[in-house]
Amino acid sequence: MDTLSALQALGLELPSPAYIVGAIVFGLIGMAAYWHGKKAHQRSTRWWGVALMFYPYALSSTGLLYAVGAALCLGLWVDLRRG
Fold it and tell me: Are 53 and 22 in contact (CB under 8 A)?
């Protein structure tokens, strides 16, 4: 039996290229936010960065990935504007 067919029979599917790109982009934004928060001693900025890095592991829908990522980026932006 083909490996891909076996995984699909178990209900596992490969993510779409759009999902992979979104996960990478939001992960990089999260890493940058974490490093900035660590350097500036801003605990909340570090937590926004951690959330951006790891939330794609909990979602499987591409649309939901982008919606949650945009909301987290908005929260990060507000946090950075607040100082």
Answer: no
Residue 1, both tokens: 């039996």
Confidence band (pLDDT; 50, 70, 90) for 1? low
Measure Cα distances from 29 to 4, 8, 9, 24 in Å: 32, 32, 35, 9
Which residue is listed with tokens 């599917």? 13
The answer to whether 71 and 51 are in contact (CB under 8 A) is: no
Q: What is the pLDDT of residue 9?
A: 85
The pTM score is 0.84
Total length of the chain: 83
